[in-house]
Amino acid sequence: MPVTTATDIASRVRAGLDPVRPTEDALNRIDADDAVVGAFRRVRAAEALAEAKALRDRPDLDRLPLAGVPVAVKDVVPVAGETVEWGSRATNRTPAPADGAIAARLRAAGAVIVGITRVPELCVWPMTDDPGGIARNPRQPSYVAGGSSGGSAAAVAAGLVPVAHGTDGLGSVRLPAAMCGLVGIKPGRGVVGTEAESHWFDMSTHGALATTAADAALLLGVLAERPELTRPREPERLRVAVSSRVPLTHAPVPAPMRAAVDRVATLLARSGHRIVHATPDYRTAAPLGLLTRWFAGPAEQAESLDASLLQRRTRTQVRIGNAVRRAGLVRERTQHEWTRRATDFFTEHDVLVTPTLAAKPPKAGRWHERSCLANAVPSVRLAGFAGLWNLAGFPAMSVPAGTFPDGLPIGVQLVAAPGGEETLLGLAAWLEAHRS
Length: 436
What we know:
- The strands form 2 sheets. This protein has an 11-stranded mixed beta sheet. A two-stranded antiparallel sheet has the order 4-5.
- It has 14 helices and 13 strands.
- It has 3 domains: 6-230, Amidase signature (AS) enzymes (Alpha-Beta Complex); 239-281 and 341-434, Amidase signature (AS) domain (Amidase signature (AS) enzymes, Alpha-Beta Complex); 285-326, no CATH class.
- With 436 residues, the protein is an alpha/beta fold.
- A hairpin with a 5-residue loop joins strand 12 (396-403) and strand 13.
- It is globular, with a radius of gyration of 20 Å.
- Residues 23-425 form the Amidase domain.
- Belongs to the amidase family.
- InterPro entries: Amidase (IPR000120), Amidase_dom (IPR023631), AS_sf (IPR036928).
């Protein structure tokens, strides 16, 4: 069976295809290609085949939304019998006694978990590598696949699985989606209700990575236990704001990325949507408040870990984060004020269109061996457009929108007010259908 979409696989399994077939095909592709791609920390070959065989006896197989679909999950959620390592030697190596909420929802929907994807240590960085391997961009292997859901993005972009789970605390789904030419959605706060949102001051949430808007919607609907999200509809006429102004730094955005935003805006204008050039009132406090949380979040998580086992860059990040926490620089007021300004912006606009990245991605390499500063500079440069929507808790997604001259994908970010997931997914599906 050729590589295909999750929507197609599930339809074929519901119609009678042996659910073992898609899993066997995925495992064969992983075996052939992942040595180069570096997407997986752990491949669950025997376990996945056993799960697929068990699906044959499910009396509800013909009704399961992800029937027989091989999926990958990020190394941050409990999967029964597997360790949750967060890309670090310092974390607990006791296998999870049971599935967490995410794995349980995937299995209930008929998915087969074929593997656990690679992440940077404690999911701090938008470059995904560890002593065991480097998650490379399948479209351009000399570049990073992104992070922290870089392994999940690499797995989907390489065709190893049709969809993958990710988490997004400061852009960790959208950044790798943009780099790898995928659709990646971060829902609003509380849409996927699990323990993950306790991470990084309630900024992190589970999301979906896929090659199509329909697949992203299908996976998100399962993760959120909201079937209405699985069927995105073309939105009515929207008030669309367009901006390529980077928050805080106002650094110049590469011309191909600005051009991608302009192409999307032109396409939407021709279809009848109202387009205006407008930028949210970012000011300075919100981006700086985001930066303090980027340091303090890992420091809070590391309290229960043996710091001597952390990578050098992470130890420095944690030391800075602890200083930030002692100084009381993580302030709720900053989040509340930015959320109010963002809410005001979306009273006049339905969707905001920006570049997903603020700079071209860096080259792949052993970033985990470099200093905190060497990692922080490209991280801050890349993520200017993404993280503030985690701080506000608004839904946002990245959609493919072109390439650089060297073929590296370019993504455009779509943002909406809380409750706007269906609008974003519908708009992404429309753009996908009309993209030349």
